[in-house]
């Protein structure tokens, strides 16, 4: 097991290294383009040349890459063009805000989806199964921006129960998290529920499950000890993918509710051509993606020890 985990960590490091090299070449190989983004479109050629010399852009690209990589590993991402300050001062608070939003969403969405998926899979073809399947299809078919508008109109305009934005301008307010979390849960739980339902229905047809039932084992014991563990292998993949989506794929929800998170920060950086902020956000997103993939691979072996990656 330790050897397996070690190999996955090596792959993770190699992947991060390869992506960092590609990112650097795409974003900073053209020093003049970087200078124009930093200094502005009306900068003279003399000013650009002076900036390139002062910031070391006249050196070979591989020398600059090694220096850039060292700075990234130490947490120094440079100066933000949009916010006129260190990238780290902007990045980490925004990342923390999205972590709060994602954590609350994850804590609600995953248990709800797994419970509904298991119930549907246990009663394949029943009214319960059909109702859960239809609800899952409907919720996942509605894009986030549409459900955000519908829920805002319902709970803010008509009922007046919840605030329509989540900017936290008056300090931390848990009520302002309710609408964004509702939108994310409604959109995301259906994928997990449907995958769990399909996996559970398949497991319930296996011979060892039927044998356990015919031997007189309590139905709850059959489900909890024999069926559920094997049924969780496929949904586990979808659950781990949801972490990546909740980190950088919530741009629409964060913008819709004016939530100051990681997703809206990526949009601001892209609109303002903030090179250094985009580089930092990309590296963080990739780190989370490869980390969750390693956790998924390890989780497979825990759920089913027969599974081994070579």
Automatic annotation (TrEMBL):
Pfam families from the UniProt entry: BPD_transp_1
Start and end residues of each ABC transmembrane type-1 domain: 95-296
Superkingdom of the organism of origin: Bacteria
Membrane topology field: Multi-pass membrane protein
Entry keyword set: Cell membrane, Membrane, Transmembrane, Transmembrane helix, Transport
InterPro entries hit by this protein: MetI-like, MetI-like_sf
Main location (coarse class): membrane
Protein location: Cell membrane
Coiled coil: none
Positions of transmembrane segments: 9-27, 99-120, 132-155, 175-193, 233-260, 280-303
Family of this protein: Belongs to the binding-protein-dependent transport system permease family.
Record's protein name: ABC transporter permease
